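quick one, two chains, predict together pls
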Amino acid sequence: MANDYDIDATELLETYDFLMKYIIIGEAGTGKSCLLHQFTHNSFKEHSQHTIGVEFSSRTVKLGEKRIKLQLWDTAGQERFRSVTRSYYRGAAGAILVYDITSRASFLNLSRWLADARALGSPHLVTVLVGNKSDREEDREVEWAEASRWAAENDVHFLEASSLSGENVEAPFLLCARSILLAIESGALDPEKAGSGVSYGDRALRRVHSSSRLSFGSLSGGRRKGTVKLRLPLAGKTRCC
Amino acid sequence: MLTSPTSPPPKYQTSSPRPHNPLSIRLYKVLAANLDDDTTKEALHTLADLYAPSLLNDTKVKPQDRELKGDRERLNDIDDEDDDTKEDANTKLPAQSPALAETVPGEIAARARRNLKKDVESKLAESSRRFLTAFAEVDKQLDTLQEYIGAMRLRCDDAQSQLGETNEACKALLDRAGSLREQRQEISTRQSMVMVFLSRFTLTPEDVEAITSREVPVGKRFFNAMNKAERIRNDCRVLMAGEEGPTKAGLDIMSTTSGYLEEAYEKIFRWCSFAFREMGRDAQIDVSPAMREAVRRLRQRPELLTEALGTLSQTRQATLLNNFTTALTRGGPGGLPRPIELHAHDPLRYVGDMLAWVHQAIAAEREFLEGLFGARAEEGGRMVGAVRAYGGTEEEDWMSELMDTAVGGLCTPLMIRVQQTIRSQESSITAYKIANLLQFYMLTMQRTLGEEAALSKRLREMTDYAYKAFSDAVEAQGRSILGIHLDLDDLTLTPPFAILDHTQILREILTVYESSLGDESSLRGKSAKDVNEAAAQGCRAILDQMVDPAVEMCVLASEEKHRLRPSWDREIFIINVLTYLQSVLEPYSFTAEKRDVIQDLVAGRVVQLIEDHFTGLLVDTGLGEMVDAGKARQGDEPLSHLPAASSSRLQAALHKFSVWLTSNTVDYPPRLGQLSVQSLASRVHRAALARLVRTYKWLCEEVRNPENKYEAAATVLGSERPFGQVHLLWQIFGIDEEETGDDIVTDKTT
């Protein structure tokens, strides 16, 4: 009896419908590892040191009716690791681009990071811009509106988060996953192909989808990128609150 | 006809013979009845009417009486015993109606009464006769009945006795039935016990089917059946451990269940092998709970598990290799991201991309295996950081083993490419960068796979190979600088181009080393001194290979050039080269050791230079002759008696010194101006000047010494600057007397 219970419990933890690879990038000290730690552990990582090279972690999230497993590659922001980290762009389905709202320099360098991501990553790479450390309003150096404009100009999603308080930490990951699912739904992305950064988890689902691309349940309904963009002001509201 | 409406119908007769009581009750009732009611009156009137017409109309009452009387008589006939009372009643009744016959004499009435009486009597007689005949018939019938009853009684007695006999006979049967019933009860109890036993100690056909049939998939039902079989075995073992020892039933149960269990394990094994072969082909794989449970159970049969996992590892190895090749040559869907080999011209990117791919594959593989062995549950299914603790558990061993095999297939293609890349590098810098990159990944893989994993070993080999290539390149560089000859026609004293090129390479190497991706995490938490020590340790060989040949070349080549071009200032050249090397090493804290070595060399050269410079100064100032004379004198001979130190010579030397003091060279000695480090030039100069002052001081003391027999010593000294005043000379040179000393010479700090 105990065994049966165990099976059920782990079943909840383990199975998933999709697997997606993310890469977390941005200048050193913007709080990438902390953001990720908050996302995977729901706690703030105290006395965090610079990441060396790349570090790996994973988490399964639920989006609509789909369970999505995220393989997260946390990269070092320091320049000297560029030669290592840039190799991890390939095969990533999503990129979380992080800057520090209290550091103008980290914001000004975003173009370079985005250019790298676009050049090295897959053409369908979904990028979400995250302004981290939103809890430190008094030290703010980058206005929300400015970052939002930059995001719109560069066609990336944007929101602000705090890895200290945990506010909005899950949102970028979910936003990214949603966009990727939509890309799959529209046929732009094929999880069957290797190197796309996405794959089916369940073999049964794979077979179903290879024959018909019907819907993702609650997600379907003709939503396109525009719908997601509507979220941007919403994200702003949460900041104001 | 005569019967009144109230009289009872003929059926009365059939019922009359038997009980008297109802009759008498009826009689009393009639007697007690009040005749004064309307219906009676009406009946009497009718009766009267019946008998009246033949008589007078006014006799209304009489028929009434007759009727009444008839009634009574009829009743009396039925009851013989009441005849007397009937007569009484008959006689009484006419007497009861004198009031009615008051107007008319009773003749008509009497006649009517008589008629009535006659009618009634005849009627009565008639009735009686009929009664008699009827009763005779009844009597006859009753006799027959009597006979029948008698016969019946006989039969009944007969039956009674037969029943008695039968009863007697049945008693034994009943007893038997009772005991049988008891037995049946007992047996059914036993049966239910046996059923309970069986249900507890044997598998139901469904369970057996779940275990043995190929139709039932490996899943919850199957595992439940297995659980049951195992529970039975455990229970049975407990039972057999009792005092009675193993029973036959117990042994049977054990052997049956063990057979089923073996079949179950076989089935799991087959299923796993099949699933592994199937799923192993996918790049990313999810582990179903049934699969995890199957693997967990199969651990009870290590030989089966080993075989199944062997299949898995082979499939995974082939899959990973295949995927790797695809990533190398075909890239992602539609060629994007581009194939890794497209960037083979960029060695760092090429090698980095391949290693990153391997790293990511390993992470995914690790996740898969953790899922397979259910090892993630205890970690909450999450993990940050590549460092893993090795608990040494069985699962960990399995996972390491499987990882090793699966990833091991990538070693060869990776190694070929990496080595090829390294071999084709001409630049030692690139080789060094590749080596650094390889080392970084080697450390990462060692943490993930363990040091003994094939890939870790291969990466170590590759790293060593890359370092060897780098080291070879550096060595070649060193050799090539050693073989360089200085341009004889170049009279400058600055470091030659060969050295500049060489140090440029060195500088780049050091920059790479400083930002190297080495095992930084292992140094975390250690003191700065340890970190520096480790850093210095790492680059010692590089510095030896790069700096030493440069120094050697500069010494040897300059010697040769000096031989051919004696005018060329070799000392200055060497010091310039050495200080230049120092300046190159300066920005890197970990080069302190090498810098110290060079500093020692420089210091030695500086001492030499000071000596040279001082000698030159002695010649320039003319004091040299006096010094030489002082050295040459023997015993207590007065200095002035020596020809070289005669008064005139002394005069000339002092004059020359005075002239020299006014010249430019006091401040800017032309030779030292060629030292590229100006502070060093001034240090050398000051040290030489200090010695010059001391020499002058010595000379003054010697001249003033009467034993040297100079005439008018004070005058001679006072005739030329600095007039024999040593402190004045200190001031002219701008040197603090106290600061002077040997420390100037040996001072290493610039």
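The longest strand of chain A covers residues 54-63.
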